[in-house]
Amino acid sequence: MKKLITLLIIAAAVLVGVNVFGPKTAEVALHYALSQKMDLKPEDVRVEASPGMKVLLGELDAVSVHGKAFRVGGLMFDSFDCDLQGVKFSPMDALLDQQMTLASAAHGEMSASVSSNELRNFLVEKVDGLKDVSVVFLGDTIEVSGSAKLGGLLNARAVIHGRFGMDEKKLMFIPDDVTVEGFGMKYRARGLGSAEVYDFSEFPLGIVPDSVMMHGDVLTIHGQTAAH
Predict the structure, then answer these.
(1) Which helix (H) or strand (E) holds 146?
(2) Helix, strand or coil for residue 188?
(3) Contact 152, 170 (CB under 8 A)
(4) Which tens digits make up the pLDDT trace of 99-130?
(5) What region does 122 belong to: left with phi over 0, alpha with psi -120 to 50, or beta?
């Protein structure tokens, strides 16, 4: 009888420990996994699970990630806010791989913002063949201009008008037209190739962007998680 009571006490202590520390353990593990791709602080990640033992089954009630001024790959985000509900993950994979990866979420939304200065730097680096590049934001339209050498000898001015948009999971700069002026002539062309800004298929948390809006000096990207 004493052994049985001892075992019950131990089992109860384990359950209490899991309920209390399970969500925090999942929180630490998720932050570690996200920090491999996103420059986040521990306090930027929050996990909710009640009772806490649900974590052992790979279930979380809610996950929230809220970060500011961090880099993902080559892009600096001003802010990132993501809230997920009904999250599932594989505890076995987390133990074996020492990497917590969210498998699915019943519902979730994301909002991320990138400053016009960051986008300006990106466009200046991406434009080939132009010197003294200038980038001006005109509402949803972006004007990229600079000087170019035609035939490697003659100077001309090129102006590209474009916008930011999504191509499946990729944030793209999409040129609408380009105008080249020189020698008293003007030439206009359409159908230029787009430039990839960021591929969200590499982004953690299963985000699927669905809209992009340029407002003032900030590009805002909204997305939802794909339910499985």
Answers:
(1) strand 141-150
(2) strand
(3) no
(4) 677 778 888 898 989 998 888 888 888 777 77
(5) alpha
